[in-house]
Amino acid sequence: MKKKMFLLLKILLGCLAIFLIAKWIIAVPVQRHYGYQKLYKYMDAQGIKRDDVKDIKASKDYLKGWYDFKVELKDFPNHTIFYTYTRYKDGEDHMVMSSIEYEKGDEYHAFDPDEVENFKYPPLPKDWENNIDKN
Length: 135
Description:
- This protein has about 140 residues and is of the alpha+beta class.
- It has helices at about 1-45, 115, 130-135; strands at about 55-60, 65-75, 80-85, 95-105, 105-110.
- The longest helix is centred in the N-terminal third of the chain and has 45 residues, at about 1-45.
């Protein structure tokens, strides 16, 4: 009887481990892949060419469930543009430009809303994908 219970426990733990690994694969690398695709599409709509990108760093915010992308451009060396990618359970995903920061000395300062709107690559409206598909 003990051997059967131990075998059953091992099978249940194995199934739980497989389930957790599958959930992690979907939540982290797959979502990051979709985030990069959406980021490139958003930057193309903004007019940012991939040759102008110096560096892109992605990080997952596990508490909020979204990805943050930190983009550095070659033509604005001390500026960093932050994008946020969210994928909802219903399959909808959203990309927004969350902020622009610039380095001054050892400190980072965020653009105010007027500076963001007047930046060479301003944020796109929420329905930016609908507008791109029409063109």
